[in-house]
Amino acid sequence: GFPAPPSRPPRRRRVSRQIMVGSVPVGGDAPVSVQSMTTTVTADIDATLQQIAELTASGCQIVRVAVPSQDDADALPVIVRKSRIPVIADIHFQPRYVFAAIEAGCAAVRVNPGNIKRFDDKVAEIAKAASEHGVPIRIGVNAGSLDPRLLERHGKATAEALVESALWECSLFEEHGFRDLKISVKHHDPIVMIEAYRRLAARCDYPLHLGVTEAGPLMQGTVKSAVAFGVLLAEGIGDTIRVSLSAPPAEEVKVGIGILESLGLRERGLEIVSCPSCGRAQVDVYTLAEQAQAALAGLDLPLRVAVMGCVVNGPGEAREADLGVASGNGKGQIFVKGEIVATVPESRIVETLVEEALRIAAERGLT
Ligand code: SF4
């Protein structure tokens, strides 16, 4: 007979240079990292550090802060010192804040050359300061603020225009022997964005920061980012990701981690496999799944937990899970690896799942 196809085709990752963003390697064989950006006024040091702490707790590995004013630049040394994850300064209009950020010890600086006046003249100085401090630079090209010269040539922010802009800026740094660069070419349309990153990936070996810009509110932004990153990461393109949402930044991190987990690029933490519910359901599956998620998430265990609405398909569907429940007649049958280990009243389903999860974790030496 025919050999069974592999369950997951081998994924060839694009070979990129590795840079260090503080303690986090980006590119090369480093795991794809998840980053986000604070929404606080950076100069409000307490609020910014509070949000960075929340992001860190949610799994964010690199954080970016906006630096639109001198007060923000002045806040950087304290923020950098107190943050537990590397801090990137995001600079749009003022080259002098680039130097301030480098001096402040930021792990990297993001510049948007299209937005920095006479950027080309400043590159020599920026490259010198950055290399003296071992600070990489992200060239962050954005469809909404493309270099006017390229906008004129291409008529609009096409994939090719974004790529040309990024590679042109890189070439300015290369002229000064500076290659600690990473690049993003963001567009709000996933189709253009995917095309831009594909072209960029083929034409340079810099690590790539994936992002769909202005992706939208939670639901729309999640879908756009998951589709765009999914396509690219499955092709081996992308070294660090930032999901942009019009929602609290910790949500961006959760979505980013979920995308990497879904692609097998990161070991899963808790995964709730819940049925969509149907006319056979004998409990409120949505509520039960949410309660189970809430109760188990805090345990921070790599478990797959099935929540099934009925006993017709429940046990079968739950067999692949570490643990599960199939509900019926006001009771829940609790399964471990598809075998019933307990039958409990509905009110005790969630606590029994937690007990069993802890038992499994103890058996596997996870606690
Ligand atoms: Fe319907 Fe039961 Fe399947 Fe849930 S497990 S979708 S309730 S048949």
TrEMBL record:
Catalyzed reaction equations:
(2E)-4-hydroxy-3-methylbut-2-enyl diphosphate + oxidized [flavodoxin] + H2O + 2 H(+) = 2-C-methyl-D-erythritol 2,4-cyclic diphosphate + reduced [flavodoxin]
- One GO term (biological process): terpenoid biosynthetic process
Please list the GO terms describing molecular function.
4 iron, 4 sulfur cluster binding; 4-hydroxy-3-methylbut-2-en-1-yl diphosphate synthase activity (ferredoxin); 4-hydroxy-3-methylbut-2-enyl-diphosphate synthase activity (flavodoxin); iron ion binding
What's the domain of life for this entry? Bacteria
Q: Which residues bind [4Fe-4S] cluster?
A: C275, C278, C310, E317
Enzyme class, top EC level, equals oxidoreductase
Name the InterPro entries on file: Dihydropteroate_synth-like_sf (IPR011005), IspG_bac (IPR016425), IspG_bac-typ (IPR004588), IspG_C (IPR058579), IspG_TIM (IPR058578), NO2/SO3_Rdtase_4Fe4S_sf (IPR045854)
User: IspG TIM-barrel domain: which residues?
Assistant: 16-256
So which cofactors does this thing need? [4Fe-4S] cluster
Q: Cofactor note from UniProt?
A: Binds 1 [4Fe-4S] cluster.
Question: What family is it from?
Answer: Belongs to the IspG family.
What does it do? Answer: Converts 2C-methyl-D-erythritol 2,4-cyclodiphosphate (ME-2,4cPP) into 1-hydroxy-2-methyl-2-(E)-butenyl 4-diphosphate.
Q: What is this protein called?
A: 4-hydroxy-3-methylbut-2-en-1-yl diphosphate synthase (flavodoxin)
Query: Origin organism of this chain?
Result: Sphaerisporangium rubeum
Gene name of the record: ispG
